[in-house]
Amino acid sequence: MTESRCALVTGSSSGIGLGIADAFAKRGMNVFMHGIETADAVESQRRKLADESGVTVLYRQADLTRPAQIRELVHDAEQAMGKVDVLVNNAGIQFVSPIDEFPEDKWDTIIALNLSAAFHGIKAVLPGMKARGFGRIINVASVHGLVASPYKSAYVAAKHGIVGMTKSAALEVAEQGITINAICPGYVWTSLMEKQVPDTAKARGITEQQVIEDVLLRAQPTRQFVTVEQIAALACFLCGDEAASFTGAALPIDGGWSAA
Ligand code: NAD
To answer: Which residue's CA is the nearest one to ligand 1's atom 8?
Structure first.
Protein backbone atom coordinates (compact mmCIF):
# COMPACT_ATOMS: atom_id res chain seq x y z
CA MET A 1 0.00 0.00 0.00
CA THR A 2 2.96 2.27 0.36
CA GLU A 3 3.30 2.61 -3.45
CA SER A 4 2.96 6.25 -4.47
CA ARG A 5 3.03 7.43 -0.88
CA CYS A 6 5.25 10.49 -0.36
CA ALA A 7 7.43 10.91 2.71
CA LEU A 8 9.38 13.80 4.17
CA VAL A 9 12.15 12.58 6.49
CA THR A 10 13.97 15.27 8.44
CA GLY A 11 17.61 14.69 9.30
CA SER A 12 17.93 12.05 6.59
CA SER A 13 21.41 13.03 5.42
CA SER A 14 22.92 10.53 7.86
CA GLY A 15 22.31 7.94 10.56
CA ILE A 16 18.77 6.85 11.48
CA GLY A 17 17.04 9.28 9.11
CA LEU A 18 19.09 8.08 6.15
CA GLY A 19 18.24 4.49 7.04
CA ILE A 20 14.53 5.33 7.17
CA ALA A 21 14.72 7.23 3.86
CA ASP A 22 16.50 4.26 2.28
CA ALA A 23 13.91 1.76 3.55
CA PHE A 24 10.99 3.95 2.45
CA ALA A 25 12.45 4.36 -1.05
CA LYS A 26 13.06 0.62 -1.37
CA ARG A 27 9.39 0.04 -0.48
CA GLY A 28 8.28 2.34 -3.29
CA MET A 29 7.68 5.59 -1.45
CA ASN A 30 8.83 8.86 -2.95
CA VAL A 31 11.16 10.47 -0.45
CA PHE A 32 12.03 14.08 0.30
CA MET A 33 15.31 14.00 2.19
CA HIS A 34 16.49 16.80 4.44
CA GLY A 35 19.51 17.81 6.46
CA ILE A 36 21.57 20.75 7.68
CA GLU A 37 24.21 19.92 5.05
CA THR A 38 24.31 21.47 1.57
CA ALA A 39 22.68 19.65 -1.34
CA ASP A 40 26.13 19.08 -2.85
CA ALA A 41 27.33 17.30 0.28
CA VAL A 42 24.37 14.89 0.19
CA GLU A 43 24.10 14.44 -3.59
CA SER A 44 25.88 11.07 -3.75
CA GLN A 45 23.54 9.61 -1.10
CA ARG A 46 20.45 11.07 -2.76
CA ARG A 47 21.50 9.69 -6.14
CA LYS A 48 22.28 6.26 -4.65
CA LEU A 49 18.80 6.01 -3.08
CA ALA A 50 17.13 7.17 -6.29
CA ASP A 51 19.15 4.78 -8.50
CA GLU A 52 18.64 1.76 -6.24
CA SER A 53 14.91 2.29 -5.75
CA GLY A 54 13.66 3.91 -8.96
CA VAL A 55 11.42 6.30 -6.99
CA THR A 56 11.66 10.07 -6.76
CA VAL A 57 14.24 11.09 -4.16
CA LEU A 58 14.78 14.80 -3.55
CA TYR A 59 16.81 16.73 -0.99
CA ARG A 60 16.61 20.16 0.61
CA GLN A 61 18.80 21.85 3.19
CA ALA A 62 17.07 23.64 6.08
CA ASP A 63 17.97 24.74 9.60
CA LEU A 64 15.09 23.36 11.66
CA THR A 65 15.89 25.54 14.65
CA ARG A 66 14.22 28.25 12.54
CA PRO A 67 10.42 27.79 12.26
CA ALA A 68 10.21 29.70 8.96
CA GLN A 69 12.64 27.23 7.37
CA ILE A 70 10.49 24.30 8.58
CA ARG A 71 7.42 25.79 6.93
CA GLU A 72 9.40 26.33 3.72
CA LEU A 73 10.69 22.75 3.83
CA VAL A 74 7.17 21.31 4.14
CA HIS A 75 5.88 23.66 1.44
CA ASP A 76 8.66 22.64 -0.96
CA ALA A 77 8.12 18.93 -0.25
CA GLU A 78 4.38 19.30 -0.94
CA GLN A 79 5.05 21.22 -4.13
CA ALA A 80 7.71 18.82 -5.39
CA MET A 81 5.90 15.54 -4.60
CA GLY A 82 2.30 16.77 -4.74
CA LYS A 83 1.65 15.82 -1.09
CA VAL A 84 3.24 14.66 2.13
CA ASP A 85 1.60 11.46 3.37
CA VAL A 86 4.32 10.60 5.85
CA LEU A 87 6.34 12.96 8.02
CA VAL A 88 9.25 11.62 10.04
CA ASN A 89 10.50 14.17 12.58
CA ASN A 90 13.97 12.75 13.06
CA ALA A 91 16.56 15.56 13.00
CA GLY A 92 18.22 15.93 16.37
CA ILE A 93 21.41 16.67 18.22
CA GLN A 94 22.88 15.84 21.61
CA PHE A 95 24.99 17.76 24.11
CA VAL A 96 26.44 16.23 27.27
CA SER A 97 27.27 18.38 30.29
CA PRO A 98 26.45 18.70 34.00
CA ILE A 99 23.34 20.90 34.29
CA ASP A 100 25.08 23.63 36.30
CA GLU A 101 27.64 23.99 33.50
CA PHE A 102 25.19 23.42 30.63
CA PRO A 103 25.63 26.23 28.06
CA GLU A 104 22.36 28.16 27.71
CA ASP A 105 22.66 28.41 23.94
CA LYS A 106 22.98 24.61 23.72
CA TRP A 107 19.84 24.21 25.82
CA ASP A 108 17.92 26.55 23.49
CA THR A 109 19.19 24.83 20.34
CA ILE A 110 18.34 21.33 21.57
CA ILE A 111 14.83 22.34 22.62
CA ALA A 112 14.35 24.12 19.27
CA LEU A 113 15.57 21.22 17.13
CA ASN A 114 14.65 18.11 19.15
CA LEU A 115 11.22 19.33 20.30
CA SER A 116 9.87 22.53 18.75
CA ALA A 117 10.82 21.54 15.17
CA ALA A 118 8.47 18.55 15.39
CA PHE A 119 5.64 20.84 16.52
CA HIS A 120 6.21 23.20 13.57
CA GLY A 121 6.50 20.26 11.16
CA ILE A 122 3.29 18.62 12.38
CA LYS A 123 1.45 21.94 12.23
CA ALA A 124 2.54 22.44 8.64
CA VAL A 125 1.68 18.95 7.29
CA LEU A 126 -1.64 18.39 9.06
CA PRO A 127 -3.89 20.52 6.80
CA GLY A 128 -2.92 18.43 3.75
CA MET A 129 -3.23 15.14 5.65
CA LYS A 130 -6.66 16.11 7.00
CA ALA A 131 -7.84 17.09 3.51
CA ARG A 132 -6.76 13.68 2.14
CA GLY A 133 -7.95 11.72 5.20
CA PHE A 134 -4.62 9.94 5.58
CA GLY A 135 -1.35 10.60 7.33
CA ARG A 136 1.45 8.94 9.18
CA ILE A 137 3.61 11.03 11.51
CA ILE A 138 6.56 9.38 13.22
CA ASN A 139 8.54 11.29 15.82
CA VAL A 140 11.98 9.82 16.42
CA ALA A 141 12.16 10.36 20.18
CA SER A 142 14.51 8.17 22.24
CA VAL A 143 14.53 5.85 25.21
CA HIS A 144 15.43 9.18 26.82
CA GLY A 145 11.80 10.15 26.19
CA LEU A 146 10.88 7.44 28.70
CA VAL A 147 13.77 7.33 31.17
CA ALA A 148 16.61 9.70 32.07
CA SER A 149 20.39 9.61 32.17
CA PRO A 150 22.57 12.20 33.88
CA TYR A 151 24.30 15.04 31.98
CA LYS A 152 21.66 15.10 29.23
CA SER A 153 19.13 17.51 30.73
CA ALA A 154 18.19 19.31 27.51
CA TYR A 155 17.99 16.13 25.45
CA VAL A 156 15.94 14.26 28.06
CA ALA A 157 13.61 17.25 28.47
CA ALA A 158 13.10 17.54 24.71
CA LYS A 159 12.55 13.81 24.23
CA HIS A 160 10.07 13.56 27.12
CA GLY A 161 8.36 16.59 25.59
CA ILE A 162 8.06 15.02 22.15
CA VAL A 163 6.51 11.88 23.66
CA GLY A 164 3.88 14.05 25.37
CA MET A 165 3.21 16.05 22.21
CA THR A 166 2.87 12.81 20.24
CA LYS A 167 0.09 11.63 22.55
CA SER A 168 -1.78 14.95 22.53
CA ALA A 169 -1.59 15.44 18.76
CA ALA A 170 -2.57 11.80 18.10
CA LEU A 171 -5.80 12.26 20.09
CA GLU A 172 -6.73 15.31 18.05
CA VAL A 173 -6.61 13.54 14.67
CA ALA A 174 -7.48 9.97 15.65
CA GLU A 175 -10.73 9.96 13.66
CA GLN A 176 -9.18 11.40 10.51
CA GLY A 177 -7.02 8.53 9.27
CA ILE A 178 -3.89 10.10 10.70
CA THR A 179 -1.65 8.28 13.18
CA ILE A 180 1.09 9.92 15.22
CA ASN A 181 3.60 7.79 17.08
CA ALA A 182 6.99 8.13 18.72
CA ILE A 183 9.82 5.65 18.21
CA CYS A 184 12.09 5.42 21.26
CA PRO A 185 15.45 3.92 20.28
CA GLY A 186 18.17 2.97 22.68
CA TYR A 187 21.76 3.53 21.61
CA VAL A 188 22.44 3.36 17.88
CA TRP A 189 25.99 3.79 16.57
CA THR A 190 25.67 6.97 14.47
CA SER A 191 27.60 10.24 14.29
CA LEU A 192 25.36 11.66 17.07
CA MET A 193 26.42 8.77 19.29
CA GLU A 194 30.09 8.91 18.36
CA LYS A 195 30.32 12.66 19.04
CA GLN A 196 29.02 12.34 22.63
CA VAL A 197 31.58 9.75 23.72
CA PRO A 198 34.41 12.23 24.52
CA ASP A 199 32.11 14.58 26.51
CA THR A 200 30.56 11.68 28.40
CA ALA A 201 34.07 10.45 29.28
CA LYS A 202 34.93 13.93 30.56
CA ALA A 203 31.68 14.36 32.53
CA ARG A 204 32.05 10.95 34.20
CA GLY A 205 35.87 10.99 34.56
CA ILE A 206 36.36 7.71 32.66
CA THR A 207 37.97 6.63 29.37
CA GLU A 208 36.15 6.62 26.03
CA GLN A 209 36.36 2.81 25.89
CA GLN A 210 34.74 2.67 29.34
CA VAL A 211 31.97 4.94 28.06
CA ILE A 212 31.17 2.45 25.29
CA GLU A 213 31.33 -0.65 27.47
CA ASP A 214 30.27 0.57 30.93
CA VAL A 215 27.79 3.34 30.06
CA LEU A 216 26.35 2.73 26.62
CA LEU A 217 26.18 -1.04 26.21
CA ARG A 218 25.57 -1.59 29.93
CA ALA A 219 22.29 0.35 29.62
CA GLN A 220 20.94 -2.19 27.15
CA PRO A 221 20.29 -5.70 28.46
CA THR A 222 21.02 -7.12 24.99
CA ARG A 223 24.53 -5.55 25.20
CA GLN A 224 24.10 -4.70 21.52
CA PHE A 225 23.62 -1.37 19.78
CA VAL A 226 20.21 -1.02 18.14
CA THR A 227 20.67 -0.86 14.36
CA VAL A 228 19.45 1.73 11.89
CA GLU A 229 17.84 -1.07 9.87
CA GLN A 230 15.77 -2.23 12.86
CA ILE A 231 14.43 1.29 13.40
CA ALA A 232 13.74 1.72 9.67
CA ALA A 233 11.73 -1.53 9.66
CA LEU A 234 9.58 -0.24 12.54
CA ALA A 235 9.04 3.05 10.71
CA CYS A 236 7.93 1.15 7.59
CA PHE A 237 5.49 -0.92 9.65
CA LEU A 238 3.98 2.23 11.18
CA CYS A 239 3.32 3.59 7.67
CA GLY A 240 1.25 0.60 6.61
CA ASP A 241 -2.47 -0.10 6.86
CA GLU A 242 -1.70 -2.87 9.41
CA ALA A 243 -0.55 -0.15 11.83
CA ALA A 244 -3.74 1.93 11.63
CA SER A 245 -4.55 1.22 15.29
CA PHE A 246 -1.12 2.29 16.53
CA THR A 247 -1.47 5.93 17.50
CA GLY A 248 -0.29 8.05 20.39
CA ALA A 249 2.20 5.30 21.24
CA ALA A 250 5.79 5.65 22.41
CA LEU A 251 7.41 2.49 21.12
CA PRO A 252 10.71 1.46 22.73
CA ILE A 253 13.28 -0.23 20.49
CA ASP A 254 15.99 -0.29 23.09
CA GLY A 255 17.31 -3.79 23.72
CA GLY A 256 15.27 -3.98 26.92
CA TRP A 257 16.67 -0.77 28.49
CA SER A 258 13.30 0.71 29.53
CA ALA A 259 12.13 -2.65 30.88
CA ALA A 260 14.99 -2.92 33.35
P1 NAD B 1 23.00 11.91 13.09
O2 NAD B 1 23.97 12.86 13.68
O3 NAD B 1 23.51 10.78 12.27
O4 NAD B 1 21.93 12.71 12.21
C5 NAD B 1 21.39 13.93 12.64
C6 NAD B 1 20.60 14.57 11.53
O7 NAD B 1 20.08 15.80 12.02
C8 NAD B 1 21.44 14.89 10.28
O9 NAD B 1 20.70 14.59 9.13
C10 NAD B 1 21.64 16.41 10.38
O11 NAD B 1 21.72 17.03 9.11
C12 NAD B 1 20.37 16.83 11.08
N13 NAD B 1 20.55 18.12 11.77
C14 NAD B 1 21.48 18.45 12.70
N15 NAD B 1 21.34 19.74 13.06
C16 NAD B 1 20.27 20.22 12.35
C17 NAD B 1 19.61 21.49 12.29
N18 NAD B 1 19.99 22.55 13.00
N19 NAD B 1 18.58 21.62 11.43
C20 NAD B 1 18.18 20.57 10.67
N21 NAD B 1 18.75 19.35 10.70
C22 NAD B 1 19.78 19.20 11.54
O23 NAD B 1 22.12 11.40 14.32
P24 NAD B 1 21.20 10.11 14.56
O25 NAD B 1 21.83 9.33 15.64
O26 NAD B 1 20.81 9.46 13.29
O27 NAD B 1 19.93 10.82 15.23
C28 NAD B 1 18.69 10.96 14.57
C29 NAD B 1 17.59 11.07 15.61
O30 NAD B 1 17.57 9.86 16.38
C31 NAD B 1 17.77 12.21 16.61
O32 NAD B 1 16.53 12.82 16.88
C33 NAD B 1 18.28 11.49 17.85
O34 NAD B 1 17.97 12.18 19.04
C35 NAD B 1 17.54 10.18 17.74
N36 NAD B 1 18.14 9.09 18.52
C37 NAD B 1 19.41 8.69 18.28
C38 NAD B 1 19.96 7.67 19.05
C39 NAD B 1 21.37 7.17 18.86
O40 NAD B 1 21.85 6.41 19.71
N41 NAD B 1 22.06 7.53 17.78
C42 NAD B 1 19.19 7.06 20.05
C43 NAD B 1 17.89 7.50 20.25
C44 NAD B 1 17.37 8.51 19.47
So the answer is: 11
Distance, first Cα to last Cα, the chain = 37
State the Cα–Cα distance between residues 40 and 61, nearest whole angstrom.
10
The total of structural domains in the chain comes to: 1
pLDDT confidence band for 61 (50 / 70 / 90): very high
Q: Largest Cα–Cα distance in the chain?
A: 54
Distance (Å, whole) CA 92 – CA 73:
16
Q: Are 77 and 3 in contact (CB under 8 A)?
A: no
CATH number at residue 246: 3.40.50.720
Whether the model pTM is above 0.90: yes
Q: State the catalytic residue, choosing from 59, 151, 155, 187.
A: 155
Q: Is the pLDDT of residue 123 over 60?
A: yes
Residue 226 bridge partners (DSSP)? 188
Mean pLDDT, the chain, whole residue set = 96
Binding pocket residue ranges, ligand 1, CB within 6 Å: 11-17, 35-37, 63-65, 90-93, 113-114, 140, 142, 185, 187-188, 190-193
Residue 209: inside a domain: no
Catalytic-residue membership of 155? yes
170-197 pLDDT per residue, tens: 999 999 999 999 999 999 999 888 988 9
Q: Is the Cβ–Cβ distance between 255 and 224 less than 8 Å? A: yes
Query: Would you say residue 211 lies in a domain?
Result: no
